[in-house]
Every structure is written in structure tokens, then in C-alpha cells.
């Protein structure tokens, strides 16, 4: 969410009515999340000036660990320097820390492609936004789950019950520090996640939604504390339910 919002912001800056705007003091502390959207808190160090040049050799974009040669346009300006400077800063301050770690395994190769392409500045802001929106579509639609084994058939659904609130086994990246609360596309994906975790005996699809409209599923390792809840459905591993006499 943070990275996509940042890319949308940089897309606007690259195509603003004032021209391509560069953020000269590009640091995480210069941004804040407001209602799920990333905003710049300080525009004092923004500029629309593109570096002047006479030849391509005048257009080297330098960073502490990398340098990129750019073209000198017929108008005597380094082509795309503001856009590329913003994009590489987004890569080194945001993408490298946030992108690789919490996506479903099927989507991670797409994110690695974005990392590699922005880290080498092979993508401009247009291509980067297009790549992010493709991944978001795959994520929200569940298309990344195609051609996977089906596990839900190995679970028994018990309507009208849920597990009592409290600490349970923990997983990563969980939305709750007290237990294992993960975003899923469907009960089928939740069953696959439960199967991949040795502690998991059951799960519940909660009423909570993420910013993408996906529900949160709560995974549990204990079946001893079931309580009535007319709105809940708990999915229990058949091996666990037979062992506990449910």
C-alpha cells in the first residue's frame, strides 16, 4: 500500500502541470500516510528545474552506490533526470525495505522484477505504475492462486462457533501481535496457509477487511476453547476434529 501510493504520487510529480518535479530532500521522514495515501509533508525542497547540458556526458545521475548515464536533449536539458532521481530514491528508501517481504509467494517474482528494474532504472515511472497495478489486480482478483492444490476439502466447517480471543501461536507477517491474522482471498487460500503451518488446527474468516477488500483470516492451534457465535464459521482440519472428538 505504501509503495503503490508512493508510485502514484511520483507519477503525478512526473506529469504535473508545472513540469517534472523532483524532491531534492527525498527521505522517509518527508512523507506521511493520510487516509491510506502517502503525502509529502514538505515541498520546500521541490524543484522543476532539469539539469542543463551540452552533451550526454553532462547528464550523469550520481548516487552513493550507483551512477546512471542520461541523454542530453536537443533543448539542452538532461532528459528525465527529475523523474529518474525520484524513482531511484523510492527504490532505495522504500522498495528495498517493503516490497520483498510480505507478498504471497506467487507474487514475489513480480515484485523482484520491479525491484531489479527500478534499481537499474530500466523502468520509468509509467512502467513502474503499470507493473504495480498489474500486481494489485492479481492480488485482489485471486488470479495468482490458479493451478494450486485444493485443501479446503480436508476441513470441516462448523457454523455458529469461534475460538475464544487470546494469545495463540504467532506467524509472520501477522496483522496482530497476539496471534496469526493474515489477509486471504478466500477460505481455500486460508486452508492452504493453515496446511503450511504445523501449529495450525483451524481458522476463521473474520469480518475485518484490508485496504484491498480482502478479508482477514485468524489461524489457531487449539480447539479446546470454542464458544458460540451466530455469525462465525470455523474451519477445522479433519484430522484435528477426529482426534478431539468434534
From TrEMBL:
Residues 1-19 form the signal peptide. The keyword Transcription does not apply. GO terms for biological process: skeletal system development. Keywords: Kinase, Signal, Transferase. The keyword Kinase applies. Pfam families: PIP49_C. One of its GO terms (molecular function) is non-membrane spanning protein tyrosine kinase activity. Residues 2-115 form the FAM69 protein-kinase domain. One of its GO terms (cellular component) is extracellular region. This is PKDCC kinase.
Amino acid at each position: 500500500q505504501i509503495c503503490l501510493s508512493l508510485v502514484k504520487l511520483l507519477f503525478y510529480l512526473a506529469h504535473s502541470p508545472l513540469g517534472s518535479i523532483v524532491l531534492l530532500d527525498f527521505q522517509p521522514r518527508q512523507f506521511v500516510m493520510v487516509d491510506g495515501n502517502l503525502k509529502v509533508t514538505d515541498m520546500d525542497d521541490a524543484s522543476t528545474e532539469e539539469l542543463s547540458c551540452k552533451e550526454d556526458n553532462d547528464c550523469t545521475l550520481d548516487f552513493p552506490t550507483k551512477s546512471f548515464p542520461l541523454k542530453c536533449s536537443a533543448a539542452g536539458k538532461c532528459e528525465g533526470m527529475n523523474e529518474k532521481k525520484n524513482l531511484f530514491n523510492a527504490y532505495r528508501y522504500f522498495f528495498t525495505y517493503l516490497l520483498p517481504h510480505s507478498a504471497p509467494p506467487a507474487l514475489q517474482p513480480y515484485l523482484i522484477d520491479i525491484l531489479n528494474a527500478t534499481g537499474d532504472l530500466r523502468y520509468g515511472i509509467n512502467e513502474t505504475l503499470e507493473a504495480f497495478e498489474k500486481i494489485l489486480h492479481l492480488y485482489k482478483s485471486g488470479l495468482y492462486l490458479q493451478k494450486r492444490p485444493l485443501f479446503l476439502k480436508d476441513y470441516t466447517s462448523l457454523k455458529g462457533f469461534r475460538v475464544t480471543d487470546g494469545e495463540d501461536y504467532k506467524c509472520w507477517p501477522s496483522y496482530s501481535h497476539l496471534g496469526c491474522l493474515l489477509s486471504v482471498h478466500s477460505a481455500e487460500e486460508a486452508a492452504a496457509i493453515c496446511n503450511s503451518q504445523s501449529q495450525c488446527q483451524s481458522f476463521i474468516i473474520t469480518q475485518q477487511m484490508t485496504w484491498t477488500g480482502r478479508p482477514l483470516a485468524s489461524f489457531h492451534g487449539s480447539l479446546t476453547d470454542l464458544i458460540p457465535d451466530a455469525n462465525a464459521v470455523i474451519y477445522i482440519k479433519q484430522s484435528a476434529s477426529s482426534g478431539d472428538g468434534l
